[in-house]
What we know:
Two copies of one chain form a homodimer. Chain A is mainly α. Chain A contains 14 helices and two strands; from the N terminus they run ααααββαααααααααα. A two-stranded antiparallel sheet of chain A has the order 1-2. The first copy, chain A, is 71% helix and 1% strand. The longest helix of chain A is centred in the first third of the chain and has 29 residues, at 69-97. In chain A, α4 (69-97) runs antiparallel to α6. Chain A has one domain: Farnesyl Diphosphate Synthase, CATH 1.10.600. At the A-B interface, α4, α6, α7 and α8 of A face α4, α6, α7 and α8 of B.
Amino acid sequence: MNVISSFDLEPWSQQRLAEIEACLEKWIPAHAPANLNEPMRYAVLGGGKRLRSLLVMGAFEAGIHKQACEELEWRREAALRAATAIELIHAYSLVHDDMPCMDNDVLRRGKPTVHVQFGEALALLTGDTLQALAFEVLTPEHSLITPYLQAALCGLIARAAGHRGMAGGQAVDLTSVGHDLNEMQLSQMHKLKTGALLEASVLAGALCAGVKDSDLDHLKVFGSALGLAFQVIDDILDVTADSSVLGKTAGKDAHADKPTYVSLMGIEGAKHKADVLIMNANQALLSSDLSTTDALVAIALRVVNRTY
Amino acid sequence: MNVISSFDLEPWSQQRLAEIEACLEKWIPAHAPANLNEPMRYAVLGGGKRLRSLLVMGAFEAGIHKQACEELEWRREAALRAATAIELIHAYSLVHDDMPCMDNDVLRRGKPTVHVQFGEALALLTGDTLQALAFEVLTPEHSLITPYLQAALCGLIARAAGHRGMAGGQAVDLTSVGHDLNEMQLSQMHKLKTGALLEASVLAGALCAGVKDSDLDHLKVFGSALGLAFQVIDDILDVTADSSVLGKTAGKDAHADKPTYVSLMGIEGAKHKADVLIMNANQALLSSDLSTTDALVAIALRVVNRTY
Lengths: 308, 308
């Protein structure tokens, strides 16, 4: 794609990532009963591309009007809390997904998985606690963040994580092993498993910014297309990259006889599919009244061009 | 204890239980991707004492002022949603707690546990999904329930479920096997593991009723003492009752070399402890300005006198 933009994603994302890491550091407890804080922090801190957080902040900045100073402050804190909560949900899903009864994986973000490091029982509890923590982070007491926004974020993220989202997609994934899926079935699975939380990231940022409903609709299209593109590229990397670059076990989907975009349409077909999806995603932004979508466009392009 | 009351708990609780079961039936999806609804419904419906729901409704009715008709309606719906959410959290914790890497139990509520019936991977996902569903139920869109109440309930229940509550207590429980705990350490563990969610049940009902802060404080004391009494009785029943009456495996704590109130103070000492706790619980209600606490008092008495 030939999108000409003077926007430089690197410094933008470095700055946001530093802020997000500081929030994760602050809102994941340093002390918890029976040292449960240790596997919690191990599972979340010090790794990960933080794509979901960047989408929250990108959508927030695309939607925010920089007038009232005090309002800007609590709205930005809400976005950081939403970004943190979504990273916690994502991290919990990885901890549980890696467990022996699921994918039985030993490597994640270049480190031993949580159950390898801390045992299965603590891995189970760690995931459970991270999910609860997400909703704790979204509902600060004595905060300027409006109850309306707190409740809306809880609802959005719970729905994206639950049976109509990520967990539902995991269940489809479990039952799809060894079955032929057509493209529609495969995309339906990924819309739930990965797409729902990526889409929720974009919508969460937009809710924090207080964007109008029509722009929420455009951002929903953007998030949905981007989410699917992300998964298509994941399927390609599972075949083409090696474990040391990915930071997780490569080739495991093919090995597990899971249906993928590559098994369905080949590497070139899948690459083309991802390009079309990202074009659709960026088209949705152009159709919106949002002005500063540079960061979102750049994140979308990075998603198709990533190598890990 | 000699508390004379004309209040009959049986018809009161039968009526509330019918309502709560109807809500669980309605808010647990009948359809979900890959039939995830089946283990979700299996884990929650058709069993359980529903103590937590009854506490929510008892506290709600103790606190509600029966004036404005429309307000009463959404406040009561909020209480039913809170009761449902807390049952979902409780059910998820049982599903995960029964898994092979935790207690490895095969019997729950007189039925095979979820992982025995549906496999470990689905049991893991079922628990995860039930936790998310709790927060979905608490945040209905287009509802008269105020965002303030929705956010407050999400925060209360997330904190009770997380590292400073149930999951934290589970972690302490895991690490306490084979260790001698003194009474303070044992009560600290149970305050987290069981007490936090029981206390949150009482507080959730009171929040839905809109009770004043001083009464919330009294209800917190009530819930905390009741929660501990519940666990003391659980420890006694683990020794004295048999599996067919309990609907779960009896004697497993003693067998697992877990510290219990019975191992610490004997059956008689534990029974006395429970009586004192319930007396304290009911004293807290007497200190409050709540008028109709008959149901809460009766529930507390049933907790110490239960045989399963």
